[in-house]
Amino acid sequence: MSDRSLRGMRLGSQSMESEAGVEPAARQTVTYETEDGERMDVVFALEAEVPTIWYTKTGKKAKRIDGGEEEPTKEKPVRTHWDMLLERRSFDELEVILKDRLNQLREARGEKPKK
Fold it and tell me: pTM value?
C-alpha cells in the first residue's frame, strides 16, 4: 500500500502554475460615504455595473461620492396576506365571517354562542 501513496505535494492545496505573464483584470475604485462621514473604497471590475448605494459591514447606507444618482427601485411593493384578503372581501364581510367562526368555536367548547 505504501507504493501507491502520493509524495511531495498536498492535493488541491497548491497550483503548479506560476503567475508570470498573467495580467489582472482591469479595475476601478469607487469611493462611498455614509451620512456620518465614514468613507470606504470598493474595487470593481472596469466593466461592472457600479451601484449607487453600498452597505457597510455595520449595515450603514453609503452613497457614491462621484455623484451617481440613486435609481428608483423597479420592484413591486410587497403584498401581504391582509392586502390580498382586502382585495377579495370588505370589512363588513370579514366581521360577519369572524362572528360565525367565533360562534363555531364557542359551540365546540360547549359555550353558548353570542349574537
Answer: 0.45
